[in-house]
Write a structure and sequence with these properties.
The protein is of the alpha+beta class. It has helices at about 5-20, 35-45, 60, 105-120, 140-145, 190-195, 215-220, 240-245, 265-270, 270-275, 280-285, 295-305; strands at about 25-30, 75-80, 95, 125-130, 150, 155, 165-170, 200-205, 205, 235. Strands 1-2-7-4 form a four-stranded antiparallel sheet, sandwiched between helices. The chain has a two-stranded parallel ribbon with strand order 3-10. The protein is globular, with a radius of gyration of 20 Å.
Length: about 300
C-alpha cells in the first residue's frame, strides 16, 4: 500500500520530469554538519576573493530550516544547458551556460509551475524556490539527494550526463521519501586540476574562487591582475575548462529547452566582431542574456586584457 509520503514523492518527481528537469532528488531538511567546517575554512582562506556576499548568511547557508520555517524537505532539481552548437573557433570564449536566455528567468518559471502543481495536487504546502543567488548550498543538497557527486573541480557530476546543468531547489514543509547519496567516481583522475589555466583548483575538491577565470571575467569589478596576462586562454565571459576536460562530460547531451537556444550572433561572431560591437548592437542582440551581467563595458575590459 502506498503511503502519503510515497504518493507525494511520486507526484513531485513526475511533475519535475514533465516540466523538463533532467532529474529530481529529495533530502531531509536540516543542518549540513559536514559542510560547516569546509565552508568556514574556505572563507578564512579568502578563497571567495572580493565576493563579499559569500560571507553573508553563514548559518542560513548551512541550515534551510532557517530559510523556510518548519521545512522538512529539500527538493533538488537539475536543468540541462549543454548546447547543440558551439562558438566559432576564432572567437573570444563564452561559458556555455551563457549561450541562450538568462537561466534565472527560465528556472524561476519552472520552479513556480512545480510549486503550483504541488499545491494543486497535494494541498496547502508552504515552501520557497531557490537558485544560485540565494544562500543555499545547492551542490551539497544535490549530492545529498543522490543526483551526483561533487567532483575534484567542485562541480556536481553525474555518470550519465556529466556536469553541464543548473541546480535549483524547492524547500517545503512537507515530509517526503528521501534519496541516498551516490558514490564518488572521480577515482585517480586529475584532468580538471591539470588543465586549469590559472591553477585555481588548489587541491582535489577545493577551488580558490579568487583565482578562477569566471571570477576574473564576471565577478571582479576592478582591473584583472597583471600576473594573469596570458593565462585566461581567450575566455571573455566565464570558463568551462575544468568541465570540458572531465571524462564524464563525454556523456553530455544537447538540452531540449528552446529558451537556451544559442544566440546566432554569439556563435558566429569572430574576435573582430566582438572588438567592434557597439552598445546599441549589444543591447539589441543580447536581450535577457547572462552577458548583460558584466555589461558591454565589462566585456570590453576583458577583451582588452586578452588582446594586449
Amino acid at each position: 500500500m502506498i503511503n502519503n509520503k510515497q504518493k507525494y514523492t511520486q507526484i513531485i518527481k513526475a511533475e519535475a520530469k514533465r516540466l523538463g528537469f533532467l532529474s529530481c532528488g529529495i533530502s531531509k531538511a536540516g543542518f549540513l554538519e559536514e559542510d560547516a567546517p569546509r565552508l568556514e575554512k574556505w572563507l578564512n582562506q579568502n578563497h571567495h576573493g572580493k565576493m563579499d556576499y559569500m560571507t553573508d548568511y553563514f548559518d542560513k547557508r548551512l541550515d534551510p530550516t532557517l530559510l523556510v520555517p518548519d521545512s522538512k524537505s529539500v527538493i533538488s532539481l537539475l536543468l540541462n544547458y549543454y548546447p547543440p552548437d558551439f562558438q566559432n573557433a576564432d572567437s573570444y570564449k563564452i561559458s556555455k551556460y551563457a549561450y541562450g536566455k538568462d537561466y534565472h528567468s527560465v528556472l524561476k518559471k519552472k520552479l513556480k509551475k512545480l510549486l503550483r502543481a504541488i499545491r494543486t495536487e497535494i494541498g496547502d504546502v508552504s515552501g520557497r524556490a531557490f537558485m544560485d543567488f540565494a544562500p543555499v548550498m545547492e551542490k551539497s543538497w544535490a549530492a545529498k539527494s543522490g543526483l551526483g557527486w561533487i567532483g575534484k573541480n567542485a562541480n556536481l557530476i553525474t555518470q550519465k550526463t556529466g556536469s553541464f546543468y543548473f541546480i535549483a531547489e524547492l524547500i517545503l514543509d512537507l515530509e517526503l521519501e528521501y534519496d541516498n547519496p551516490t558514490t564518488d567516481h572521480c577515482g585517480s583522475c586529475t584532468a580538471c586540476i591539470d588543465a586549469c589555466p590559472t591553477e585555481a583548483i588548489v587541491a582535489p575538491y577545493v577551488v580558490d574562487g579568487s583565482k578562477c577565470i569566471s571570477y576574473y571575467t564576471i565577478e571582479l569589478k576592478e582591473n584583472i591582475p597583471q600576473e594573469m596576462k596570458g593565462k585566461l586562454d581567450d575566455w571573455m565571459f566565464g570558463c568551462d575548462v575544468c568541465q570540458d576536460v572531465c571524462p564524464w562530460n563525454r556523456f553530455s547531451k544537447a538540452h531540449s529547452e528552446p529558451l537556451f537556444t544559442p544566440y546566432p550572433e554569439l556563435l558566429s561572431y569572430s574576435k573582430k566582431d566582438w572588438e567592434e560591437i557597439t552598445e546599441e548592437t549589444f543591447a539589441k542582440v543580447f536581450t535577457n542574456s547572462p552577458l548583460k551581467r558584466t555589461k558591454l563595458e565589462g566585456l570590453k575590459r576583458n577583451i582588452k586584457f586578452l588582446k594586449y
